[in-house]
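Lab notebook page, bench 4
Experiment: in silico fold of construct C2
Operator: M.H.
Input chain length: 217 residues
Purpose: comparison with the prior construct
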Amino acid sequence: MNNVLYTRTSGQGPDLILLHGLFGQGGNLRSVARALETDFRVHCVDLPDHGRSPWLTRASLATYATAVGDWMDQHELMAAHILGHSLGGKVAMELALTEPGRVDKLVVADMAPVTYAEHHQVILDALQQVVARGCQTRTEAEALLGEVIDDPGVVGYLLMSLERGGDGEVFQWRFNLAGLASAYGQLREAPSETAPFQGRTLFLKGSESAYIQASHE
């Protein structure tokens, strides 16, 4: 299997890598890329097990950060600015902590360097039900997700990764659902405990988000 991460690149200037959240894909951050591409060469990367990137046999923050570093090597990028959202923020932190010379400036959106409690199980169960029931329309999949996920924004976000299977009849998830479900415990862990990253870093918190708390400071 090709091990090159799928990427969409636009703009000119210093290199900026955008890393999306769990169950997402690089295209989720396309509006951010458009806002920044006048000043940066922006790379919207599909993380492993997501979007159109290859699936890994073992998913973790470490293997994802290594994959991003390998992608940088393949594109002859010694270092770049990195902006990560949610899971992408954890991967960005992992890379900054383990290979600090590769990260010029770090921006982490809606994520803290902590281990989070399990709170995606309802979503994982709903995603598995879409496949198990063999949904044949997006409307059917949307209704099924809506039965257990009360946030239409989250449902819409998930549906962006829904595609028809090889038979063209039923829908499947573009991401590696089985792999992500199996590795969920590892992906919610805090980044590696190493010497602090000394580069310039910005943490962004949504006003209604619960992912960054005062206790995390």
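Observations: The longest strand covers residues 103-109. The mean pLDDT is 91.
Next step: discuss at group meeting.
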